[in-house]
Design brief:
Structural class of chain B: alpha+beta
Strand order of the largest sheet of chain B: 2-3-1-4
Number of strands of chain A: 26
Structural class of chain A: alpha+beta
Shape of chain A: elongated
Helix content of chain A: 40-55%
Strand order of the largest sheet of chain A: 14-26-25-24-15-22-23
CATH topology of chain B: Alpha-Beta Plaits
Radius of gyration of chain A: 34 Å
CATH architecture of chain B: 2-Layer Sandwich
Number of helices of chain A: 27
Oligomer: heterodimer
Distance between the termini of chain A: 33 Å
CATH class of chain B: Alpha Beta
Shape of chain B: globular
Number of domains of chain A: 5
Number of strands of chain B: 4
Number of helices of chain B: 2
Radius of gyration of chain B: 11 Å
Distance between the termini of chain B: 11 Å
Largest interface: A-B, 11 and 13 residues
Order of helices and strands of chain B: EHEEHE
Number of domains of chain B: 1
């Protein structure tokens, strides 16, 4: 989204939403405010994201939300820890359960008086009055929020699920009160002599019970996000000249030197200044193997130190840490809505008013066409319709699935930009890979060392000792190659960089010329044919004492997981393409090795994106995976874009999905998660549509017309609670699926 | 005692010159530093324990690049 420079994102925690209609209402009403450019409210995670034209708008947005009957507070990203977030949720769940206990106790008392064993005790009139006394606390105290919502509806015409419960219970309560207080009058008017106090008690009880289970399940959907928040450390050990001291993480500044003991958490991002250790980064990358860290290596907040003490310099603190960015990303993603939800939102937006209308039609039809007891039938069916209708299930269907999926993916090192992206991923039938940095490591590595075997070690030692003085990437590849062989290096006596060609050096009386063919020609040295070019890669010739003694071939190694990932894609029937700026010889050899279907070599950045457009014109749905600045145009044009987290920021910001560790197998996993999530969303929507469209007529008494049973209001409230629970539980299945 | 001559790129003024001289002299193993802006060289005299690699790193940390080195 293009935003003006003054535009700001505000993120609010919103409390008091009882169903998706509430979320819709807030989204719509806040969206109408002046200066609000975008408004997205997510019921499942109880938050709203608003794009506004200035910081002063926050107050206006918050007061509008309050006016609508909800409360909101600014969510300082990361300011709220995982524990706090979980604690406030748990508090809410406890409260719901308490309300349920109070209501059900009174409801059981009501049942005793209305049905068994105290039916009619001590006299019919007194019995009704006793029921009334027991019902008042449930109706007006535990059921207060439903009645308030009804009042809100009468005043403003804005309705939600609570309105339905409020209207249902209020009708039942008032009808019963009238029968009880004005018995004679009601007989005269032909009203059925039945009270519904026990129905009020049970309906409110079951709504609370349903909300209790729903909240519990919803808490599990945000578990992944909470786990991310919990990763952050609370304190840090600051190393000063006087020794070490424990400080709060919030006061850590860039440049501070921090010490982390074995098994400790790194509190902020930074670079090692002293010590070596292996670090467990699985929590942010999904990579199970510990990563070796030495002086200069980057460390990330939330990762866990291995077996050695490490001193490191803080380079990124607070909101800048990689962990904070992941959390921010996941929170935003969970707010973005897939297309499929928009229909559901439209339906649930008009759902409650429609149900209210349906309920009154039911009432009218039964009063006109019903048989005795007319009023009893009509009132009972009216309440049942109001109580059974569940916009919740409809509203929860998509967001809960998206929240579970994005959360689970983030813990596995896959950052998904939003629910809509999961949807796009499912249709993909062609994948275009960039080569360098995506399929391959993207940095030069020695692929072969052509040398006489007897001299291999001595030459490598000399050359690496010299090359460590050069910052050139090819030199780095050679010193790394020597370090992997465990060679200890010496120091040259002389060395000189010849720009663009190589270097000239001397070590222990031996003279070396190390560089490309041009450098050898310049020194009139002949290239030995057995060490000459016959492989793919860059050549570095070694001349010792004026004689060509060996050659390094430096190439770009294919990542270990690339082959497996590509064969997985092909197994799923996806067409694979590789587009690279590299030459045809290299491109062909990589494609042949990995079994990639097609390639385009020597492509300029814009040619990459033109190829994507061409494939799209052939009717293909194209995903692009890349890492570099040169891939950005192609990433932007593709239907689905994935960036390697090891790549450039430009590529990452142009993409829908980031694979944190740059592992192509994670792209395979992402496609699987997407397919699974879409399947679950469809099941959820199906469940809730079927549920509502089948059970509302039943509640209205359609079965009675055909001689079947009538649905009592109490049973309707049980059915309603079950529908929400089943949808949320279904979404949680995404967590377990592989 | 040893003496090393380094070719250093990026030195443009007296400020760079004194920056290198002052920083290198902090090293106890170094006894003398001579910077020549015209020749683009830094000549260092010091103990035999002085490592060429660390000398190069020290200069590069100050923001210059070492393109050559010669023992004198």
């Amino acid at each position: 989204m293009q935003t003006e420079p003054t535009d700001q994102n505000i993120q609010l925690k919103i409390e008091g939403m009882s169903c998706a209609s509430c979320a819709n209402l807030i989204e719509r009403e806040v969206g109408k405010l002046a200066g609000v450019k975008n408004s997205v409210v997510n019921y499942a995670v109880e938050s709203g994201t608003f794009v506004v034209d200035g910081p002063e708008r926050q107050e206006e947005v918050m007061s509008k939300i309050q006016e609508l009957g909800f409360s909101s507070k600014a969510s300082e990203d990361g300011g709220e820890s995982g524990e706090e977030r979980e604690e406030s949720k748990k508090e809410k769940i406890r409260k719901n359960f308490q309300q349920f206990l109070i209501s059900i106790t009174l409801a059981v008392g009501l049942f005793a008086l209305a049905m068994w064993p105290l039916k009619g005790w001590p006299s019919p009139t007194l019995n009704h009055w006793l029921q009334f006394l027991l019902c008042v606390p449930v109706y007006a105290w535990t059921g207060k929020k439903f009645q308030l919502s009804l009042l809100q509806f009468l005043k403003t015409g804005k309705s939600n699920m609570n309105t339905l419960i409020g209207l249902g219970t209020t009708s039942a309560f008032l009808y019963s009160l009238f029968i009880t207080a004005f018995t004679a009058k009601s007989v005269e008017w032909g009203l059925t002599q039945k009270v519904y106090f026990e129905a009020v008690g049970f309906i409110i009880s079951f709504v609370y019970l349903g909300q209790y289970f729903e909240e519990k399940a919803k808490m599990k959907t945000t578990e992944a996000l909470n786990n991310l928040l919990k990763l952050g450390a609370k304190t840090a050990t600051l190393v000063t000249e006087e020794g070490t001291k424990e400080i709060e993480i919030s006061v850590v500044k860039k440049g501070d030197i921090l010490r982390v003991k074995p098994g400790g958490k790194f509190p902020v991002d930074g670079k090692v200044v002293k010590g070596t250790s292996s670090v467990d980064e699985s929590m942010i990358s999904g990579e199970p193997l510990p990563v070796f860290k030495e002086k200069g290596s980057a460390l990330y907040a939330g990762t866990i130190n291995g077996d050695q003490v490490i001193d490191y310099k803080a380079t990124k603190v607070g909101e800048e840490t990689f962990l904070a960015q992941i959390i921010h990303f996941v929170e935003q993603a969970q707010g973005a809505k897939p297309e499929i939800q928009k229909l559901a939102d439209k339906v649930s937006g008009v759902f409650t008013p429609v149900v209210i209308v349906v309920a009154f039609i039911t009432l009218a039809l039964w009063l006109i066409f019903g048989s005795e007891p007319i009023w009893g039938q009509a009132i009972s069916n009216f309440i049942a319709v109001l109580v059974i209708a569940c916009p919740c299930a409809l509203g929860l269907a998509t967001p809960t699935a998206v929240v579970v999926a994005t959360g689970r993916a983030s813990l596995n090192g896959i950052l998904i930009g939003g629910g809509d992206i999961l949807e796009k991923a499912v249709g993909v039938n062609t994948i275009v890979f960039d080569k360098t940095g995506t399929i391959t490591e993207g940095k030069p590595t020695v692929t072969s060392f052509l040398v006489d075997e007897s001299e291999e070690e001595s030459i490598l030692k000399d050359v690496a000792s010299i090359e460590q003085f050069s910052e050139h990437p090819l030199s780095k590849a050679i010193t790394k190659y020597a370090a992997e062989k465990g060679l200890s290096l010496g120091e040259p006596d002389e060395f000189e960089v010849i720009k663009g060609k190589g270097l000239v050096a001397a070590i222990e009386e031996r003279s070396y010329i190390i560089g490309n063919e041009a450098l050898l020609k310049e020194n009139s040295i002949e290239v030995r044919s057995d060490y000459g070019p016959n492989k793919v890669g860059s050549y570095i010739y070694i001349v010792r004492n004026q004689r060509h003694v060996g050659t390094f071939v430096v190439g770009d190694k294919i990542k270990e997981t690339s082959a497996k990932a590509i064969s997985e894609f092909r197994k799923q029937g996806i067409e694979t393409w590789m587009i690279t700026g590299d030459n045809e010889v290299v491109a062909r050899s990589v494609c042949e090795e990995l079994g990639i279907d097609h390639f385009l070599a020597g492509a300029l950045p814009l040619e990459k994106s033109e190829k994507i457009i061409e494939l799209q014109k052939q009717g293909k749905v194209v995903a692009m995976i890349g890492d570099g600045v040169n891939d950005a145009p192609a990433l932007a044009k593709s239907d689905l874009s994935l960036a390697m987290g090891t790549g450039t920021d430009v590529a990452i910001s142009a993409s829908d999905v980031t694979l944190v560790k740059g592992d192509l197998l994670k792209a395979v996993e992402f496609l699987k998660i997407s397919q699974n999530t879409l399947k679950i969303i469809k099941q959820n929507l199906f469940l809730s549509f079927i549920y509502n469209s089948l059970l509302i007529p039943v509640a209205a008494g359609i079965l009675v017309v055909f001689g079947g049973p009538q649905m009592p209001p109490v049973l309707a409230s049980v059915a309603m609670a079950l529908s929400s629970i089943s949808v949320v539980t279904n979404s949680l299945r995404i967590r377990g699926a592989q | 005692m040893k003496s090393v001559l380094l070719n250093v790129d990026g030195m443009s003024c007296g400020g760079c010159k004194s920056k290198i001289e002052n920083n290198l002299k902090d090293n106890d193993a170094i006894s003398e530093v001579t910077v020549s802006l015209e020749e683009k060289t830094v000549q260092v005299q010091g103990d035999d324990s002085l490592s060429n690699m660390s000398l190069k790193k020290d200069i590069e940390e100050l923001g210059f690049s070492v393109t050559g080195m010669k023992k004198l």
